[in-house]
Amino acid sequence: xxxxxxxxxxxxxxxxxxxxxxxxxxxxxxxxxxxxxxxxxxxxxxxxxxxxxxxxxxxxxxxxxxxxxxxxxxxxxxxxxxxxxxxxxxxxxxxxxxxxxxxxxxxxxxxxxxxxxxxxxxxxxxxxxxxxxxxxxxxxxxxxxxxxxxxxxxxxxxxxxxxxxxxxxxxxxxxxxxxxxxxxxxxxxxxxxxxxxxxxxxxxxxxxxxxxxxxxxxxxxxxxxxxxxxxxxxxxxxxxxxxxxxxxxxxxxxxxxxxxxxxxxxxxxxxxxxxxxxxxxxxxxxxxxxxxxxxxxxxxxxxxxxxxxxxxxxxxxxxxxxxxxxxxxxxxxx
Length: 334
Prior knowledge:
With 334 residues, this protein is α/β, with parallel strands linked by helices. It has twelve helices and twelve strands. A twelve-stranded mixed beta sheet has the order 3-4-2-1-5-12-11-6-7-10-8-9, sandwiched between helices. β8 (205-208), α9 and β9 (242-246) form a beta-alpha-beta unit. α1 (17-25) crosses α3 (42-52) and α8 (181-197) packs across α9 (223-237). The longest helix has 20 residues, at 314-333.
């Protein structure tokens, strides 16, 4: 069976995205997992190879079917959109923000056109996007707009631990306000459906508590009593295999050990801290609820070390591995 094709946009040219891309493509194990098509600028990648001391042959193509998928070859759709004389490594620039958006746009189009099976993203800089007047704050919002998806679903995975998020980039006060019975019911159903798409049979979902000790039946807050428990009970009555609320100080550990297939975290940092404490580099973001599958590194552009050749490709390699692993299930469902 042919290995899945993964489309990788190189991210912000002033950050570590190009560097981790060439380092990942230089790892022979990556070629055993998938066929990789890179979306970027040839000149930027040549520079990254030079300061990273990586030797690859760049094969410029316009269609993934033209690729030469063997170790030592980097198959590139060259957008040629960076003026190297103006590129300042480690700096926020409108030029690199605009280019990063164009790489994502081209990679997403390959996936929508069924020329690639998975979109695997590196890292972009929100300030550079803003400088370029890109009307979206990050990858999820950009890809959501490009695919016409109003409510993408984010899942983190690190080793055996999978975590969904009821809310993401909002204040803690707003996150608490979003813990309603209707929101809980919707996210329980979305999370279970997403797990099935990824090949998990009869998913067992756990819901984390919001308050200490899940509120102790209302002593430390009413959210569990008034929103979380009613949503869980209603879902169980419909046959959904879901438990909760379970104290956030223990539920992630139990899921990591295999008791649950995933945890629904009730706010951003609750789940982020749990996953990144397990293994920071191998915590991968997976975006679901869209017509395409996206896996991603969960780190930034690291402008402070950009251009030094010291960035680790571990997270990108793990994102490639999970993308290749889930692609057959996702594409069968779609």
